[in-house]
UniProtKB/TrEMBL annotation:
It catalyses: 2 L-glutamate + NADP(+) = L-glutamine + 2-oxoglutarate + NADPH + H(+). NCBIfam families: GOGAT_sm_gam (TIGR01317). Its cofactor is [4Fe-4S] cluster. The lineage of its organism: Bacteria, Bacillati, Actinomycetota, Actinomycetes, Kitasatosporales. GO terms for molecular function: 4 iron, 4 sulfur cluster binding; glutamate synthase (NADPH) activity; metal ion binding; oxidoreductase activity, acting on the CH-NH2 group of donors, NAD or NADP as acceptor. This is Glutamate synthase [NADPH] small chain. It comes from Streptomyces silvensis. Gene3D superfamilies: Alpha-helical ferredoxin (1.10.1060.10), FAD/NAD(P)-binding domain (3.50.50.60).
């Protein structure tokens, strides 16, 4: 155990963020560099080393949280890194991007602020990179088997790294021009600088993983032909079909899906553009959708110099404390203030968009909305609450409905879908097509990065068993496992 009285002697402290006026002028991560290390040892000491560590249940990866908390408390960074990597291929991703269901399940969180698990995690891995404890792990021998991984998001990368280390020859196919999936072109730079992806890719290359960018399976290569070229295939193409808003005026110029807007800002940071083709500069921006993707749009609009930013959410505003129906250790729906929200803008709850209004040139100018309330269990418009707000740039951040069907990948493989439109799989993550497996959002539906990595690791074990008859690779979750909720 770290410090038996740590949770009594120390309160919760989190990473320090840079001043708003400074950070909205650049695209660097919002946190003050190096601000965690001076406090992280005592924060790790708050871990109670519980007899039954519910944080393990909150985390689908089964991270060995009390163990690496203890090492972090003792500042044994090498041992902490080893324990962290035992269950998680990319802790620098999850430590920055995961909403930390482990903290919601922390036993200390029953009556005190939870342990800062996420901050401890990112401190360990950043220190590991700094000290050279993260090194390529090339296999001792090759199996002679080949695997194609379709998609280079966290699920695809996790599966590829596990299978490469097991001795298989793995090629990752990515339809974008760079590796990373939504980590690369969905997550803004201010949430995670892309250098973190780049050095992992170099590690994987050194281990033997091959990468093929700018290749879309289904369009550039027939999926059925790909299956014949490889001994196994992992479909980790994500759930990229965005939920649309079929209201009058949707066709107006200036109304975009979030994933049409955000990648362009990332491409500016990559050096592909001097300025983004779709900018919020000087415009009244409306973001429809109250989740993390919506917050990413808010922060991006701030940095582009928007005149105003308004975020709309159809559901009521969550409370700041656990609701009676969301007891510990479930993941509660709470009012969350992200770094983007700290930077300004207005958040409006319990409203629904009725239509868009444009000018004579077909550019969106106003958004019309109405307040809604639950009546007999259904969201119903409230008469007399209609109004319009300025909207010269609108982003739709309402989630995703499933994997892409337009590129032909699903049909060319002949994959069965489940009742929710996701690619169906069995207990080994294998689809109805022998040798074709599915991991991540393509099989689970839109979910969290930590679930994607867990799925990639579990699918890798299924592939390894399919190819060799047995596997020593870990499998943290089953395809049917779900988040710890009520």
């Amino acid at each position: 155990m770290a410090d038996p009285k740590g949770f009594l002697n120390h309160g919760r402290e989190v990473a320090e963020t840079r001043p708003v006026g400074e950070r909205v002028q650049d695209w660097n991560e919002v946190y003050v560099p190096g601000s965690l290390l001076p406090i992280i040892s005592r924060q790790a000491s708050r871990c109670m080393d519980c007899g039954i560590p519910f944080c393990h249940n909150g985390c689908p990866l089964g991270n060995l949280i009390p163990e690496w908390n203890d090492y972090a408390y003792r500042e044994d960074w090498s041992a902490a890194s080893e324990r962290l990597h035992a269950t998680n291929n990319f802790p620098e991703f999850t430590g920055r991007l995961c909403p930390a269901p482990c903290e919601a399940a922390c036993v200390l969180g029953i009556n005190q602020p939870a342990v800062t698990i996420k901050n401890v995690e990112v401190s360990i891995i950043d220190k590991a990179w700094e000290t050279g404890d993260v090194a390529p792990q090339a296999p001792e021998r090759l199996s002679g088997k080949t695997v194609a991984v379709i998609g280079s998001g966290p699920a695809g990368l996790a599966a590829a790294q596990q299978l490469t280390r097991a001795g298989h020859t793995v090629a990752v196919y990515e339809r974008a021009d760079r590796i990373g999936g939504l980590l690369r072109y969905g997550i803004p730079e201010f949430k995670m600088e892309k250098r973190h992806i780049n050095r992992r890719i170099e590690q994987m290359r050194a281990e033997g993983t091959k990468f093929r960018t700018g290749v879309e399976i289904g369009r550039d290569i027939d999926a059925a032909k790909l299956r014949k070229r490889y001994d196994a295939v992992v479909v980790a193409a994500g759930a990229t079909t965005a939920r649309d808003l079929p209201v009058p005026g949707r066709e107006l110029k200036g109304v975009y899906q979030a994933m049409e807007y955000l990648p362009l800002a990332n491409k500016v940071q990559e050096g592909d553009y001097v300025t983004t083709p779709v900018s919020a500069e000087g415009k009244h921006v409306v973001v429809i959708g109250g989740g993390d993707t919506g917050a990413d749009c808010v922060g991006t609009a701030h940095r582009q110099g928007a005149a105003s930013v308004t975020q709309l959410e159809i559901m009521p505003r969550p409370g700041e404390d656990r609701a009676p129906g969301q007891p510990w250790p479930t993941f509660p729906m709470l009012y969350k203030v992200t770094s983007a929200h700290e930077e300004g803008g207005e958040r409006v709850y319990s409203v629904s968009t009725t239509h868009f209004e444009g000018d004579e040139d077909g550019n969106v100018q106003f958004l019309h909305l109405v307040e809604v309330a639950f009546v007999d269990g259904k969201l119903t418009p409230k008469p007399g609450t209609e109004r319009r707000i300025p909207a010269q740039l609108v982003t739709l951040a309402m989630g995703f409905t499933g994997t892409d069907r337009d590129n032909g990948l699903v049909d060319q493989f002949g994959l069965d879908l489940d009742e929710r439109g996701n690619v169906a799989r069995d207990g080994e993550f294998q689809t109805n097509v022998p040798g074709v497996f599915v991991a991540g959002d393509a099989g689970r539906g839109q979910s969290l990065i930590v679930w994607a990595i867990a799925e990639g690791r579990s699918a890798a074990r299924g592939v390894d068993r399919f190819l060799t008859g047995a596997s020593d690779l870990p499998s943290p979750i089953r395809p049917t496992d779900r988040s710890l909720t009520v």
